[in-house]
C-alpha cells in the first residue's frame, strides 16, 4: 500500500486529492459510495481521532473512528480546499463535478495499481508478487 500511496504527485491538485482519497479509504475502510457521499459535516475532528458519519446501504448510518495519524491528511485536504465552513460540500470532487462517482474512484485505484505493477512490483500478475510478499 505504501507504494501506491506514494504514486500520486502531491505537487498537483489532482495528486493531492488522489493521495488523500487513497489513504483515507484505506484508513477508514469506507465503501466507495460512502466516500462519494461524504460531506464536510460528516466528519468531526478531535485532537486524538476523527469521527465519521458514513451513510451506507439502505440509508443506514454508521459511525467510523480513525486515529489522529490517519485523520490529519483529510483535515489538511479540507483546509486546502477551503471548505471547512461548507458543511454540505462533498469532500472529494471530480475534475468536472462537485460530487465524485464510484466509477471515478475505481479509475483512480486502477490507474495507481497499474503504475505500481509497472514501476515497482516487477511481475505481470499481482498474484505472483503476493507469493513473494
Account of the 3D structure:
This protein is an alpha+beta fold. It has one domain: hpI Integrase, Chain A (Orthogonal Bundle), CATH 1.10.443. The chain is built from six helices and three strands; from the N terminus they run H-H-H-E-E-E-H-H-H. The two termini are about 10 Å apart.
Index terms:
single chain; 133 residues; alpha+beta; hpI Integrase, Chain A; three-stranded antiparallel sheet; 6 helices; 3 strands; 50% helix
CATH topology: hpI Integrase, Chain A
State the order of secondary-structure elements, H for helix, E for strand. HHHEEEHHH
Beginning-to-end CA distance, first to last residue: 12 Å
Which sequence of strands runs across the widest sheet?
1-2-3
- How many strands? 3
Q: On the 0-100 scale, what is the average pLDDT?
A: 91
Give the CA-based shape. Answer: globular
- Helical content (DSSP H or I, runs of 4+): 40-55%
Strand content: 5-15%
Number of domains: 1
Give the CATH H-level superfamily. Intergrase catalytic core
Query: How many strands, which pairing sense, and closed or not: the largest β-sheet?
Result: 3 strands, antiparallel
List unreliable stretches of 5+ residues: none
Give the radius of gyration: 16 Å
Structural class: alpha+beta
The CATH architecture would be Orthogonal Bundle
In CATH's first tier, which class applies? Mainly Alpha
User: What is the tally of helical segments?
Assistant: 6
Amino acid at each position: 500500500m505504501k507504494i501506491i500511496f506514494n504514486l500520486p504527485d502531491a505537487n498537483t491538485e489532482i495528486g493531492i486529492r488522489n493521495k488523500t482519497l487513497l489513504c483515507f479509504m484505506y484508513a477508514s475502510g469506507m465503501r466507495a459510495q460512502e466516500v462519494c457521499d461524504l460531506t464536510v459535516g460528516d466528519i468531526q475532528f478531535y485532537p486524538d481521532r476523527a469521527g465519521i458519519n458514513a451513510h451506507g446501504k439502505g440509508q443506514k448510518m454508521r459511525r467510523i473512528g480513525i486515529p489522529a495519524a490517519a485523520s490529519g491528511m483529510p483535515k489538511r485536504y479540507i483546509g486546502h480546499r477551503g471548505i471547512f465552513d461548507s458543511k454540505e460540500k462533498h469532500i472529494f470532487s471530480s475534475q468536472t463535478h462537485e460530487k465524485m462517482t464510484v466509477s471515478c474512484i475505481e479509475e483512480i485505484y486502477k490507474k495507481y495499481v497499474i503504475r505500481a505493477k509497472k514501476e515497482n512490483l516487477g511481475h505481470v500478475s499481482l498474484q505472483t508478487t503476493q507469493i513473494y510478499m
